User: Which sequence fits this backbone?
C-alpha cells in the first residue's frame, strides 16, 4: 500500500469501522469512507435480514462509540453506492490522493442525505 500519512489514517479508520459493522448481527458485508467528521457506510444485509431503522440505529451507535472523531453517520444498503465506495477505497490503496476522491465522496454524501 503506497498511501501517505493522513490518507493512510483515514483508510485505517474507515477499514476499522467496516470491520466493526460487519461483526454486527444481520450484516454480511460493509464498506465505508470517512470525509472530515462524516462517515458514509454501505452494507450488504444477510439473507432474511431487513435493512430498517433498528439496524441503522445499531450501526450509528456502534460507529459513534468506536470513533469519537465521527459526528455524522450516513448508511445505505444501495449496491451501487457500495460499489462506488469500494472503488474509492481501491483507488486510495493504489496510491491515488484522497483529495482526488473528494468530489466523488461529496456526490455520494449528497445522494445519501436525500435518501
Assistant:
Amino acid at each position: 500500500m503506497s498511501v501517505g500519512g493522513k490518507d493512510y489514517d483515514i483508510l485505517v479508520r474507515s477499514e476499522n469501522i467496516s470491520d466493526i459493522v460487519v461483526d454486527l448481527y444481520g450484516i454480511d458485508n460493509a464498506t465505508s469512507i470517512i470525509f472530515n467528521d462524516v462517515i458514509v457506510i454501505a452494507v450488504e444485509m444477510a439473507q432474511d435480514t431487513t435493512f430498517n431503522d433498528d439496524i441503522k440505529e445499531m450501526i450509528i451507535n456502534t460507529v459513534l462509540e468506536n470513533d469519537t472523531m465521527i459526528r455524522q453517520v450516513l448508511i445505505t444498503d444501495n449496491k451501487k453506492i457500495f460499489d462506488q465506495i469500494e472503488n474509492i477505497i481501491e483507488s486510495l490503496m493504489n496510491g491515488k490522493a484522497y483529495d482526488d476522491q473528494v468530489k466523488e465522496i461529496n456526490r455520494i454524501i449528497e445522494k445519501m442525505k436525500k435518501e
User: Anything to note?
Assistant: The first helix runs from residue 5 to 22. The mean pLDDT is 93. Helices lie at 5-22, 53-66, 79-93, 98-114. Strands lie at 27-35, 38-45, 72-76.
